[in-house]
Amino acid sequence: MDNNKKDFFLPGSILVAALLISGSIIYMVGSKNSANTSNQVPLAGDVKSKVEVSSRDVILGDTKAPVTLIEYGDYQCPWCGKFFTEVEDKLRKGYIESGKVKMVYRNFAFIGPESFAAAEAAECAKDQSKFWVYHDELYRAEHKDGAEKNGNLNRDLFLKIATDLKLNLASFTSCLDADKYAKQVETDTAEGRSAGVRGTPAIFINGEQVGNGFVEFESAAGPSLKGVIDELLK
């Protein structure tokens, strides 16, 4: 992936959200492992009728793309890591780079302090228009061994990534050490819960939640990103 690609901001708009419940894999709030929890789905009554896209959302891809994918994720979540390594690259190459899909990533930091700290670091990188490349490096670093709560996500790593990506280190460090975006991460997570998110990854396409957790890029059985996107592009 080209680390020189710019981040883009989507002007505030409102998307209608609905819940499409089906068997898939999700890392649930309060769960202690990444087992299949397809029976632990949020009730329809838990879901608000809309998801609001704010000016703080950073768009990967063409802001005018007809399909919008929103992921609520946690940098420690094993299934978010699986989504990043197995699905997202195909999504970027097949749909985002061609201008058909734009993507938004939102914090749903619930696994522990490392999740929260990593989300704050990514927000600091956002100040320097490096959100997406920083996001990518966080996932690569954390999921080398596929384990959460192992101390990988720490200040030394955050500063190393910032250095490698040639961020202004003084500004980044000041942002990080001041907990500048702690409240924002709390707000993002709370808004996710209000939208019906109960675990990660939670994927919304044009406002509708697809599956209930990890969704394959392409699958003969059950929902797949490719299937949903291709249907919307017809």
Would you kindly provide a written description of the structure presented here, covering whatever features stand out?
With 234 residues, the protein is of the alpha+beta class. The protein has one domain: Glutaredoxin (3-Layer(aba) Sandwich), CATH 3.40.30.10. Helices cover 37% and strands 16% of the residues. The chain has helices at 78-96, 113-126, 131-142, 155-164, 169-177, 182-194, 225-233, and strands at 8-9, 13-16, 18-19, 27-28, 50-53, 58-59, 67-73, 101-107, 199-200, 202-205, 208-209. A five-stranded mixed beta sheet has the order 3-11-10-7-8. It has a two-stranded antiparallel sheet with strand order 1-6. A two-stranded antiparallel ribbon has the order 2-5. Strand 7 (67-73), helix 1 (78-96) and strand 8 (101-107) form a beta-alpha-beta unit. Helix 2 runs antiparallel to helix 3 (131-142) and helix 4 (155-164) runs antiparallel to helix 5 (169-177). The two termini are 28 Å apart. Mean pLDDT is 81; it is low at 1-6, 8-26 and 30-49.
In short:
The protein is α+β, with helices and mostly antiparallel strands.
Low-confidence stretches: 1-6, 8-26, 30-49
What is the multimeric organization of the chains shown? Answer: single chain
Beta strand %: 15-25%
- Overall morphology: globular
| Biggest beta sheet summary | 5 strands, mixed
Number of domains: 1
- Number of separate strands: 11
**Going across the major beta sheet, what is the strand order?**
3-11-10-7-8
